[in-house]
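Pilot study result, target chain (250 residues):
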Amino acid sequence: MAELGTTLNGQHRSTPGLRLPSVLIATRHGESTANVEFQLAEAAGALSVPINCRDADIPLSMHGQQQAQALGRWWAGLPAGDRPRSVWCSPYVRTAETARIALAQAAGLGAVPISLAVRYDERLRDRELGILEMLPAAAIEAKHPEEAARRRKMGELYYRPPGGESWSDVALRVRSCLRDLCEQEDGNPVLVVAHDCTVLMLRHVLDRLTEQQLLEVEQVANCSASVWRTDGERLRPERWNTTGHLEPGA
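Predicted structure:
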Protein backbone atom coordinates (compact mmCIF):
# COMPACT_ATOMS: atom_id res chain seq x y z
CA MET A 1 0.00 0.00 0.00
CA ALA A 2 1.13 3.60 -0.60
CA GLU A 3 2.51 5.67 2.26
CA LEU A 4 -0.05 7.48 4.41
CA GLY A 5 0.88 10.90 3.11
CA THR A 6 0.42 9.70 -0.45
CA THR A 7 -2.86 7.96 0.25
CA LEU A 8 -4.48 10.65 2.37
CA ASN A 9 -2.79 13.91 1.43
CA GLY A 10 -1.93 13.45 -2.25
CA GLN A 11 1.76 14.30 -1.88
CA HIS A 12 2.64 12.44 -5.09
CA ARG A 13 0.76 12.68 -8.36
CA SER A 14 0.90 9.02 -9.31
CA THR A 15 1.42 5.93 -7.15
CA PRO A 16 1.04 2.38 -8.43
CA GLY A 17 -1.41 0.37 -6.33
CA LEU A 18 -2.98 3.40 -4.65
CA ARG A 19 -6.08 2.33 -2.72
CA LEU A 20 -8.91 4.66 -1.73
CA PRO A 21 -12.64 4.34 -1.04
CA SER A 22 -14.73 5.86 -3.82
CA VAL A 23 -16.65 7.95 -1.28
CA LEU A 24 -16.00 8.47 2.43
CA ILE A 25 -18.95 9.72 4.49
CA ALA A 26 -18.40 10.65 8.14
CA THR A 27 -21.05 11.37 10.74
CA ARG A 28 -21.14 12.09 14.44
CA HIS A 29 -23.52 9.98 16.52
CA GLY A 30 -27.02 11.27 17.23
CA GLU A 31 -27.73 13.37 20.27
CA SER A 32 -26.78 11.44 23.42
CA THR A 33 -28.19 11.67 26.91
CA ALA A 34 -24.86 13.24 27.95
CA ASN A 35 -25.20 15.91 25.26
CA VAL A 36 -28.51 16.90 26.85
CA GLU A 37 -27.17 16.89 30.40
CA PHE A 38 -24.11 18.96 29.48
CA GLN A 39 -26.23 21.56 27.68
CA LEU A 40 -28.34 21.93 30.82
CA ALA A 41 -25.26 22.08 33.06
CA GLU A 42 -23.49 24.67 30.92
CA ALA A 43 -26.60 26.87 30.83
CA ALA A 44 -26.91 26.69 34.62
CA GLY A 45 -23.21 26.94 35.40
CA ALA A 46 -23.47 23.62 37.24
CA LEU A 47 -20.41 21.85 38.61
CA SER A 48 -21.59 18.33 37.82
CA VAL A 49 -23.81 16.26 35.54
CA PRO A 50 -25.99 13.31 36.65
CA ILE A 51 -24.06 10.68 34.68
CA ASN A 52 -22.71 7.64 36.52
CA CYS A 53 -21.82 5.27 33.69
CA ARG A 54 -18.66 5.12 31.60
CA ASP A 55 -18.38 7.47 28.66
CA ALA A 56 -18.39 4.39 26.43
CA ASP A 57 -21.81 3.34 27.76
CA ILE A 58 -23.74 6.59 27.21
CA PRO A 59 -26.78 5.94 24.95
CA LEU A 60 -28.70 8.09 22.51
CA SER A 61 -31.52 10.32 23.65
CA MET A 62 -34.93 9.91 22.04
CA HIS A 63 -34.13 12.85 19.79
CA GLY A 64 -30.81 11.20 18.92
CA GLN A 65 -32.65 8.08 17.82
CA GLN A 66 -34.84 10.21 15.55
CA GLN A 67 -31.73 11.84 14.10
CA ALA A 68 -30.28 8.41 13.35
CA GLN A 69 -33.48 7.48 11.52
CA ALA A 70 -33.21 10.67 9.46
CA LEU A 71 -29.61 9.80 8.66
CA GLY A 72 -30.78 6.40 7.44
CA ARG A 73 -33.38 8.00 5.16
CA TRP A 74 -30.70 10.30 3.73
CA TRP A 75 -28.44 7.28 3.19
CA ALA A 76 -31.24 5.49 1.33
CA GLY A 77 -31.75 8.55 -0.90
CA LEU A 78 -28.16 8.73 -2.08
CA PRO A 79 -27.31 7.71 -5.66
CA ALA A 80 -26.82 3.94 -5.76
CA GLY A 81 -23.08 4.25 -6.37
CA ASP A 82 -22.62 6.49 -3.31
CA ARG A 83 -24.56 4.41 -0.78
CA PRO A 84 -22.07 3.00 1.74
CA ARG A 85 -21.47 -0.72 1.39
CA SER A 86 -19.73 -0.98 4.73
CA VAL A 87 -19.72 0.92 8.01
CA TRP A 88 -16.73 1.65 10.24
CA CYS A 89 -17.95 2.57 13.70
CA SER A 90 -16.68 3.56 17.13
CA PRO A 91 -17.56 0.79 19.61
CA TYR A 92 -19.19 3.24 22.05
CA VAL A 93 -22.91 2.66 22.70
CA ARG A 94 -24.11 5.96 21.21
CA THR A 95 -22.25 5.38 17.94
CA ALA A 96 -23.23 1.74 17.71
CA GLU A 97 -26.89 2.70 18.24
CA THR A 98 -26.63 5.39 15.56
CA ALA A 99 -25.17 2.93 13.05
CA ARG A 100 -27.74 0.25 13.88
CA ILE A 101 -30.74 2.59 13.60
CA ALA A 102 -29.51 4.28 10.41
CA LEU A 103 -28.75 0.94 8.79
CA ALA A 104 -32.15 -0.48 9.74
CA GLN A 105 -33.85 2.60 8.28
CA ALA A 106 -31.90 2.45 5.02
CA ALA A 107 -32.46 -1.30 4.74
CA GLY A 108 -36.16 -0.89 5.46
CA LEU A 109 -36.38 1.43 2.48
CA GLY A 110 -34.76 -1.23 0.30
CA ALA A 111 -31.58 0.78 -0.29
CA VAL A 112 -29.03 -1.52 1.37
CA PRO A 113 -29.02 -5.09 2.68
CA ILE A 114 -29.75 -5.44 6.40
CA SER A 115 -26.69 -7.70 6.57
CA LEU A 116 -24.37 -4.85 5.58
CA ALA A 117 -21.08 -5.20 7.43
CA VAL A 118 -20.42 -2.97 10.45
CA ARG A 119 -16.83 -2.91 11.69
CA TYR A 120 -16.27 -1.62 15.21
CA ASP A 121 -12.86 -0.02 15.60
CA GLU A 122 -11.60 1.38 18.90
CA ARG A 123 -9.43 3.91 17.06
CA LEU A 124 -12.64 5.79 16.21
CA ARG A 125 -13.62 6.22 19.88
CA ASP A 126 -14.18 9.63 21.42
CA ARG A 127 -11.38 11.76 22.83
CA GLU A 128 -10.40 10.66 26.32
CA LEU A 129 -10.35 13.58 28.78
CA GLY A 130 -8.75 11.92 31.79
CA ILE A 131 -9.30 13.92 34.99
CA LEU A 132 -11.58 16.32 33.10
CA GLU A 133 -14.02 13.63 31.99
CA MET A 134 -17.68 14.39 32.73
CA LEU A 135 -16.84 17.84 34.10
CA PRO A 136 -18.74 20.91 32.81
CA ALA A 137 -16.68 24.00 32.00
CA ALA A 138 -17.51 25.64 35.33
CA ALA A 139 -16.31 22.59 37.22
CA ILE A 140 -13.00 22.52 35.36
CA GLU A 141 -12.38 26.16 36.27
CA ALA A 142 -13.34 25.55 39.91
CA LYS A 143 -11.68 22.18 40.53
CA HIS A 144 -8.70 22.27 38.16
CA PRO A 145 -7.84 25.94 37.56
CA GLU A 146 -4.22 25.11 36.68
CA GLU A 147 -5.40 22.72 33.97
CA ALA A 148 -7.90 25.28 32.65
CA ALA A 149 -5.06 27.81 32.36
CA ARG A 150 -2.73 25.29 30.71
CA ARG A 151 -5.49 24.36 28.25
CA ARG A 152 -5.96 27.99 27.22
CA LYS A 153 -2.21 28.46 26.81
CA MET A 154 -1.51 25.32 24.77
CA GLY A 155 -4.69 25.16 22.68
CA GLU A 156 -6.84 22.11 21.99
CA LEU A 157 -4.57 20.63 19.32
CA TYR A 158 -1.73 20.09 21.81
CA TYR A 159 -3.31 20.23 25.27
CA ARG A 160 -3.39 16.80 26.89
CA PRO A 161 -5.24 16.59 30.22
CA PRO A 162 -3.72 14.24 32.82
CA GLY A 163 -4.81 10.73 31.88
CA GLY A 164 -6.36 11.95 28.63
CA GLU A 165 -5.64 12.86 25.02
CA SER A 166 -4.98 15.95 22.94
CA TRP A 167 -6.55 16.45 19.55
CA SER A 168 -3.18 15.46 18.10
CA ASP A 169 -3.34 12.13 19.95
CA VAL A 170 -6.75 11.47 18.40
CA ALA A 171 -5.37 12.44 14.97
CA LEU A 172 -2.65 9.79 15.30
CA ARG A 173 -5.14 6.99 15.79
CA VAL A 174 -7.39 8.40 13.07
CA ARG A 175 -4.45 8.25 10.65
CA SER A 176 -3.86 4.64 11.63
CA CYS A 177 -7.51 3.74 11.10
CA LEU A 178 -7.59 5.49 7.73
CA ARG A 179 -4.63 3.42 6.53
CA ASP A 180 -6.60 0.24 7.13
CA LEU A 181 -9.85 1.69 5.82
CA CYS A 182 -8.24 2.80 2.54
CA GLU A 183 -6.56 -0.57 2.10
CA GLN A 184 -9.65 -2.65 2.78
CA GLU A 185 -12.34 -0.47 1.19
CA ASP A 186 -10.65 0.29 -2.12
CA GLY A 187 -13.25 1.49 -4.62
CA ASN A 188 -16.17 1.23 -2.18
CA PRO A 189 -18.34 3.94 -0.60
CA VAL A 190 -17.89 3.83 3.19
CA LEU A 191 -19.70 5.33 6.18
CA VAL A 192 -17.74 6.25 9.32
CA VAL A 193 -19.83 6.70 12.49
CA ALA A 194 -17.80 8.39 15.21
CA HIS A 195 -17.66 11.41 17.53
CA ASP A 196 -17.23 15.16 17.20
CA CYS A 197 -13.47 15.16 17.85
CA THR A 198 -12.90 12.05 15.72
CA VAL A 199 -14.75 13.50 12.74
CA LEU A 200 -12.93 16.81 13.19
CA MET A 201 -9.59 14.98 13.13
CA LEU A 202 -10.67 13.20 9.94
CA ARG A 203 -11.02 16.61 8.36
CA HIS A 204 -7.70 17.75 9.86
CA VAL A 205 -5.92 14.78 8.26
CA LEU A 206 -7.75 14.60 4.94
CA ASP A 207 -7.91 18.34 4.25
CA ARG A 208 -4.46 19.14 5.70
CA LEU A 209 -5.75 21.92 7.93
CA THR A 210 -3.34 24.11 9.86
CA GLU A 211 -3.86 24.59 13.58
CA GLN A 212 -5.49 27.98 12.99
CA GLN A 213 -7.79 26.61 10.29
CA LEU A 214 -8.75 23.74 12.57
CA LEU A 215 -9.65 26.06 15.42
CA GLU A 216 -11.95 28.02 13.11
CA VAL A 217 -14.02 24.96 12.13
CA GLU A 218 -17.49 24.86 13.69
CA GLN A 219 -18.42 22.10 16.10
CA VAL A 220 -19.46 18.87 14.40
CA ALA A 221 -23.23 18.48 14.65
CA ASN A 222 -25.02 15.30 15.69
CA CYS A 223 -25.78 13.07 12.68
CA SER A 224 -24.34 15.64 10.27
CA ALA A 225 -22.95 14.47 6.93
CA SER A 226 -19.40 15.17 5.76
CA VAL A 227 -18.36 13.72 2.41
CA TRP A 228 -15.05 13.19 0.63
CA ARG A 229 -14.78 11.74 -2.89
CA THR A 230 -11.73 10.24 -4.54
CA ASP A 231 -10.24 11.79 -7.66
CA GLY A 232 -7.96 8.79 -8.08
CA GLU A 233 -5.11 10.37 -6.15
CA ARG A 234 -6.63 11.60 -2.89
CA LEU A 235 -9.93 12.10 -1.11
CA ARG A 236 -11.30 15.55 -1.91
CA PRO A 237 -13.85 17.34 0.32
CA GLU A 238 -17.32 17.61 -1.16
CA ARG A 239 -19.51 18.69 1.77
CA TRP A 240 -18.89 19.39 5.43
CA ASN A 241 -21.08 19.07 8.52
CA THR A 242 -24.39 19.49 6.69
CA THR A 243 -27.64 18.87 8.58
CA GLY A 244 -30.41 19.65 6.10
CA HIS A 245 -31.38 15.97 6.01
CA LEU A 246 -32.35 16.20 9.69
CA GLU A 247 -35.05 18.81 9.07
CA PRO A 248 -38.70 17.66 9.19
CA GLY A 249 -39.82 16.50 5.77
CA ALA A 250 -36.28 16.35 4.39
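One observation from the pilot: Confidence is low (pLDDT under 50) at residues 1-7, 9-14. A full batch analysis is planned for the follow-on phase.
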